[in-house]
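tokens incoming
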């Protein structure tokens, strides 16, 4: 992890995380997840212009959890 980051910067990063409350760390994690979700959703919408929201959501599930799980969850064969 962080293999492209200098040792000094890595230490500052971890000091900052250690200084956060659990609530702050959770909020940061949720914000990062949301940003990643938005980027993935936008890329799929760009690449699949005619896909509706249900299809985009299914494709996201398939990429995150695998096609078999996504098919079971969304009842797609």
């Amino acid at each position: 992890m962080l293999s492209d980051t200098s040792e000094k910067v890595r230490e500052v990063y971890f000091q900052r995380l250690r200084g956060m409350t659990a609530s702050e760390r959770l909020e940061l994690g949720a914000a990062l997840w949301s940003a990643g979700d938005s980027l993935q959703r936008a890329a799929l919408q760009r690449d699949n212009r005619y896909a509706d929201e249900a299809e985009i959501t299914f494709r996201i599930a398939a990429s995150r959890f695998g096609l078999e799980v996504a098919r079971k969850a969304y009842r797609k064969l």
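note: The mean pLDDT is 93.
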